[in-house]
User: Fold this.
Amino acid sequence: MTAEVLSIGNEVLSGRTLDTNFQVLARLLEESGARVVGHQAVPDDAAAIAAALALAHSRADLVVCTGGLGPTPDDLTVDAVARALRRRVVRDEAVLADVRARWASMLRAPMPPSNDRQADLPEGAVAWKNPVGSAPGIHLALDEGKHVVLLPGVPEEMRELARLHLAPFVRGASTISVDYCVVRTVGIAESLLEQRLGDVTARLDGAAVAYLPGQGGVDVRITVPGGLDAPARAAWSERARALVRDAAREYVYSEDDRPLEQVVGDLLRERGWRLAVAESCTGGLLGGRITSLAGSSQWFDGGAIVYANEAKTREAGVAPELLAAHGAVSEEVARALARGIAARFGTACGLGVTGIAGPDGGTPEKPVGTVHLAAVTPDGEHHRKLQLRGNRAQVRERAVTFALDLLRRRLLGLPASSTGAIGTPPGEPRAT
Assistant:
């Protein structure tokens, strides 16, 4: 099965909204057995939607559209698709009842008449129940085995509908059974990782190898050959993981789907240690990432946002004299934050983050993107200085990733950083 994604919305086309939906859909479709052959960004314009649909329909078995299913006049997707496919728009009373029930339960107020439009479907379509929003997913089966699926543009709603309905549909309709093994790395650039792995494709009998970079991490995804029985598939996957593991070594943090924060949490739980965090430039993102995990209360106590110098002193016990002597963005203050927050919460481990996320505030000595991290455990301390590139949001997100990795390395007895690590300033010695 081949698939194409249409991202519909003026906000996407203008760049004011980042199109994360396509990234999620492309991965889900490929993992479910559909080969993605195209992607179009389309404005909220009926003629443009029809033209994009016709083009996608000409080259793909499945067209997935996101966006334009809301109740406002600029939400044109249903009408435009129905017109392009020469179908009437009909109101589904069962969907309308669901929309009204959700509105009543969530907002406890009369539903505006405009929301009735979210129960309108192209004739012959099947509605997919939306567990987190009001607009349903819509599936149209066309002639010659072709399909059109309409999903809301709200990322949370799109992801749930895709997971619950789209992925099972594709797995059932596709003749391709795709299996992958994944090794997750952090702190090494994609190009350096590929250089380390070398001719891994040849050593794996031509298997497809994909490098999937994120905020400071790269997943290595290897396609497992089809036609293998379960024991042979497991043996082949272990051989593939071993090749990546031997090449990437200390940069590997997971050989399954566990995110970095889960790996850190598992290491802490195994040792019976708990964690507290003190965050300056990340402003709560580190604590938020940790507490996004169900069960993180088993190893995480809490933290403090210590943005101002006074807060660093009040919440984490950083001496004013230390701040005056070295500045808030320094190794000395990062270490003091990690020690101080652990002492305040009575935890075995602490993480301290301080830096300049930008776009302003940098100096020649401490340019924007300078971040100091410190991790404290009963076995000792790690510090790392980073020089991160990117906008403010990227610097903050990457700082969170590298803070978690610093603690992972401290827990495993690894050095704070390694040769070629991302973010290490030129000429800096290896962190300890």
